[in-house]
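Encode chain A's predicted structure.
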Amino acid sequence: MRKALILLVLASLLGLIGCGGASTNSSNAVSPNAKRYPFKGKVVSVDRAKKTASIDHEAIEGYMEAMTMDFPIHADWAWDSLKPGSEISGELVVDNTAKDPYFLENIVVVSPPDPNAPAPDTKFAQIGQPAPDFSLTNQDGQKISLKTFQGKAFAITFIYAKCPLPEFCIKMSSNFRDAARLIKTDPQLSEKLRLLSISFDPENDTPEKLRAYGITYMGNDPNAKFDIWQLAVGSDAEVRKIADFFGLRYEVNPENKAIIDHSLRTAVISPDGKVTKIFAGNDWTPTQLVDALKAAEK
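Encoded structure for chain A:
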């Protein structure tokens, strides 16, 4: 009995016990039809305010390959235990009826962070590096590449038209629309700044569909001009090359082929083609994006 008690205390001190209490928020109730998958990975960064953690996880058998992406975590106790560098295990819950269609539960901190390990680079290794060239087709059927934006500061984000999540592609597209409107209010900025949304769903997002998608964000005006903000698509290999460079991960949901599970990345590129800033999630505003573009343009 004494030995068991000692082991329990040690496990608690090391953060090995993951039963610190699940969230009691009724909005986080899990559907009985939810799917659960064993989960292992290493914490890259945490956002306590948003209750999300970026985790470099192992392949999830029957669901997705290994990648780094952001996961909601509802258990309040976790934010006192999760640190960058911590190795964790738990369950990935996939519940399309919930507020968060996927999240982590039953988390166990298997290993605390190595105190001698270097801090994670939150700016990403690509900062200051030349952006990769690309060959895409825009909403008007025109070929575009990195040279299309030469001499201008521009931002890239990634979306797919069928995305149903208000905090993901819908927010990215709304932010880009609003940023385009801000840019158009200044004639000088209108000459210097550009925006590009790249679809990672080439099977469905044809140039024609992307044009219709963009028009819905611009007041359903059929004569809307895509002079500041463009939308484009390319082959899966071409888009993945760009996405991989910026750390975006996306995979078709095996339970619902119409849904693509993905992370978020928005990159700012200077007129000489170098990456100056990367927004890793959705915690940014159109004004912040325009400010980052203006800083890159100088």
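The chain has two domains: 2-111, 135-297.
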